[in-house]
Amino acid sequence: MTFQKILERTLRYFVAFFIFVYGAAKPLQFGNKNGFPDKLVSELTGMELMWSFFGYTKTLPIIIGIIQVSGALLLLSQRTKIIGALLLIPVMINIVLFDVFYQVKTGATVNAIVFLSVLLILLIFEHRKMIQVFKIMTTKTKKDPNRIILFIISALLASTLFFVYTYLQRQ
């Protein structure tokens, strides 16, 4: 077993454990309105405002928690680790951005940045597979001789749907 394999597996388990715990705790973390309901919005700090926003409903934190727990579990398997990392990276980017712009405590922000960095490193370890997938997704296929007609029909139908949908919203 090579050093890279040991390092990669160690990093996967490390980040999976922490993200699993954070994801599983989401309903508790935002469940009690966090003690800020009696303050005016103008009196809240950025972190209090964010906590109040996420604490308004349990549904959104639960959804975020389910995504985090699912991604963490996917990281544990060699076969699903890339899917887990790709699932978690947008969530962690969002968390880092919220932490930075709403001035969440430094420790939490550093943790989120570390976990995001580890996820990106895990994808770097899989760069060959990522390049293969990118090549498959961007490879030009044989041009369909009916592509112009297909484009026109699809554009007309999409435009019609747009106008009908907009009209129905006004009713």
From TrEMBL:
The chain crosses the membrane at residues 12-30, 50-75, 82-102, 108-127, 148-168. The keyword Transmembrane helix applies. Keywords: Membrane, Transmembrane, Transmembrane helix. It comes from the Bacteria. The keyword Transmembrane helix applies. This is DoxX family membrane protein.
